[in-house]
Amino acid sequence: MPKLKHSKSRFLICIENKGYTVSLEKRKVYVALPDATALKHGHVRVIDESGEDYLYPKSLFLPITIPQSLRKAILEAA
What we know:
Layout: E1 10-14, E2 29-33, H1 36-40, E3 43-47, E4 53-57, E5 61-64, H2 68-77
Antiparallel strand pairs: 1-2, 1-5, 2-3, 3-4
């Protein structure tokens, strides 16, 4: 997986994983990658439990704001 750019990713929390129990954990924070085409179709590109990025329905997540110091630590660990 390529190194994530700090300014290009955002964070989402999984609020539902019905149909995706192997790939997503409820209440877990995920890194979302920019994908304008996916957003137009109601999806988000998320790095899931496999460590790869896949499209998921946007309705499974809520965006969250993370302090810059924590954001950096999460992205470096990804």
